[in-house]
Structures are given as structure tokens and as C-alpha cells.
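HUMAN:
Just now I want nothing more than another pair of eyes on a protein record. I would be glad if you read both lines and explained how they fit together. I have put the entry right below:
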Amino acid sequence: MGHQTAQSLNNIIPILIDSRRGYEMAADLCDDDYVHKAKFLKKVAERAAITAEFQAHVRLQGEEPKEEGGPLGKIHRILTGMSKNFGSEEETALNAIDDGEEFLQQAVETELEKDDVDAAGRTLLKQALDSAKNGEAYADAHA
């Protein structure tokens, strides 16, 4: 069970790292909007903390946690940076957040379907899922 838990968490860690970077980019895009910027910076800290918890649990399983984001996250940030030229920066940031949170939700739900993830790993995955749902709801409400 330990190996599968570590593998499931390691499948999500790069997405969490990319998500944190996405929120940093969104905060930069919304420089003039204090409300959004504050919310995005709060999510940056939250994602960093969740990522650290995932990495710590992977280490407890005797495995090495992933430390980098993935190629899809990098591409998403590049496209977001380009799309700001075609709309408001606030709208661009909120749309990027919405897309990223939906991707994170789907990935976490896939890992939660696996039977051989231990209880602590399952709790961490549910925490990430709740965070993604909260982020997507915020983006949907303000887009």
C-alpha cells in the first residue's frame, strides 16, 4: 500500500506545484485588483503547504517525492501569458485558474478511485480536491 500511496501522491505533486505557479502568475496579472490578488496569494501559500504535506507523506512511504511541475503546467502558463493580450488581465487570470483547478480536480478524483491508497494519503488527496473545488468556485463566481 505504501508504494501505491507514494505513487498516487507523486502523480498529484507536479500539478500542485504548477497550480501554485499559476496562482503566482494570476496574482501578477491582477496587480491592480487587490481583492483578487489577495485571494490568489492566499492560494499560493495554501498550495505550497499542501505540496509540502504530500512530499512529506511520500517520504514517510520510503519514496522520493517529485519536486518539479509538469510540462502541461508550463504550457498552460505560456498560453495564459499570451492570452492576456486578447482580454482583460483579470479575466485571463480567472479563466486560467478555472482551467487549472478543473484539471487538478480530475487528477485527484482519478487517484481517489484507487483502492490501495492509505488513509493518510486519501485524506491528503481529499484536502487537495476541496482546495481545487474552492478555487474553481471562486473563479466561476468572478469570471
